[in-house]
Design goal:
There is one protein chain. The chain is an alpha/beta fold and 323 residues long. It has two domains: 229 residues, Alpha-Beta Barrel (TIM Barrel); 77 residues, no CATH class. Strand 3, helix 4 and strand 4 form a beta-alpha-beta unit. Helix 8 crosses helix 14. The structure holds flavin mononucleotide. The site of flavin mononucleotide has 28 residues, from strand 3 and strand 9. Flavin mononucleotide binds next to strand 3 and strand 9. InterPro entries: Aldolase_TIM, Enoyl_ACP_red-II_put, NMO. This is Probable nitronate monooxygenase.
Length: 323
């Protein structure tokens, strides 16, 4: 399964564990990389020294390529950008903004820069700014989302740019991976499925919510603020949505969710915490090791693609018969 992405990132399988605030630490990212994918440490709002120590911890677990997801709105972003360049990771994905300011610094450090986008316009802008690849993320995904679905966004981004594209959002198994490859992606990025990896250190209560979720159990809060977030329905989301309906102030909404992801991930408070997860949670039914997850996805994607090639042969045969 060699693509431009496996070559660019020097990995065995085109499977990426997306950066996830609080969730994607060294333990998760390194164990994904160790088994042939690539894991991204989620820097989110963390201080630069935390990012440095996680990169070093990851390098103790594996000598395979490691990535960092840099949140451009973080108050520590300048220092995090510097740390990432100093520590020499293979790739950086960026969310929430334009990484142009750091492009030269990262490129000089030999880092591949891969912005996450939710629109064709943003993908084009990122390519012009020097991106090595693009993650096109649909609104099925967990966490902060855009408005387009993966099914429609992905092929449009593929058509719009010449750098390789990674599909993300709503991909949870090999069928999803095969579909993304059909749409022109050269790798897939998964978040929700890796939350329940055995090596993931999130609270058991969080994992249990993901494993127990049904297809319709995620909701989007924050549409009124312009910062929509997908998470699993709970007491907090019900209160939040009610407050949005009643047009309460931005500050009150912020107050309700301040530190709420940490509350769910670290403290296991899945009633008042934010249990970020994507629509695909409904399909995720067990904890597995990163190795099992990656092997299963890749194997199933290959079988799915093989099945589809039978359809292609059929139609060729028919055409030959008709001719
Ligand atoms: C708990 C959680 C936290 C996330 N945090 C971030 C983040 O800090 N930065 C980012 O770019 N994407 C973040 N994402 C998005 C993931 O990197 C990934 O693109 C997404 O989860 C893919 O869709 P899926 O959840 O349907 O697999 C987060 C997703 C989840 C579920």
């Amino acid at each position: 399964m060699q693509t431009r992405i496996t070559k660019l990132l020097e990995i065995e399988y085109p499977v990426i564990q997306g950066g996830m605030a609080w969730v994607a630490n060294a333990a998760l990212a390194a164990n994904v990389s160790k088994v042939g994918g690539i894991g991204f440490i989620g820097a989110a709002n963390a201080p630069a020294e935390w990012v440095r120590s996680e990169i070093r911890r990851a390098k103790e677990i594996t000598d395979k390529p490691i990535g960092v997801n840099v949140m451009l709105l973080s108050e520590h972003v300048d220092e995090v950008a510097q740390v990432v360049a100093e520590e020499g990771v293979k790739a950086v994905t960026t969310g929430a903004g334009n990484p142009a300011k750091y492009m030269k610094q990262w490129k000089e450090a030999g880092i591949r820069v891969i912005p996450v986008v939710a629109s064709v316009a943003m993908a084009r802008m990122m390519e012009r700014a020097g991106a090595d690849a693009i993650v096109a993320e649909g609104m099925e995904s967990g966490g902060h989302i855009g408005e387009q679905t993966t099914m429609s966004l992905l092929p449009q981004v593929v058509d719009a740019v010449s750098v390789p594209v990674i599909g993300a959002g709503g991909i949870g198994d090999g069928r999803g991976m095969a579909a993304a490859l059909m749409l022109g992606a050269e790798a897939v990025q998964l978040g929700t499925r890796f939350i329940v990896a055995k090596e993931s250190t999130v609270s058991q209560a969080y994992k249990d919510r993901v494993i127990g979720a049904k297809d319709i159990d995620s909701v989007v809060t924050g549409r009124s603020t312009g910062h929509p977030v997908r998470s699993l329905r709970n007491t907090m989301t019900r209160q939040y949505l009610e407050m949005e309906k009643n047009n309460v102030s931005f500050e009150e909404l912020e107050h309700l969710t301040l530190g709420a992801l940490r509350k769910a991930v670290v403290d296991g408070d899945v009633a008042m915490g934010t249990v970020m997860a994507g629509q695909i949670a409904g399909m995720i039914k067990k904890e597995q090791t990163c190795a099992e997850i990656i092997q299963e996805i890749v194997q199933e994607a290959k079988e799915t693609i093989k099945k589809c090639s039978i359809f292609a042969e059929d139609s060729c045969g028919n055409e030959a018969e008709h001719a």
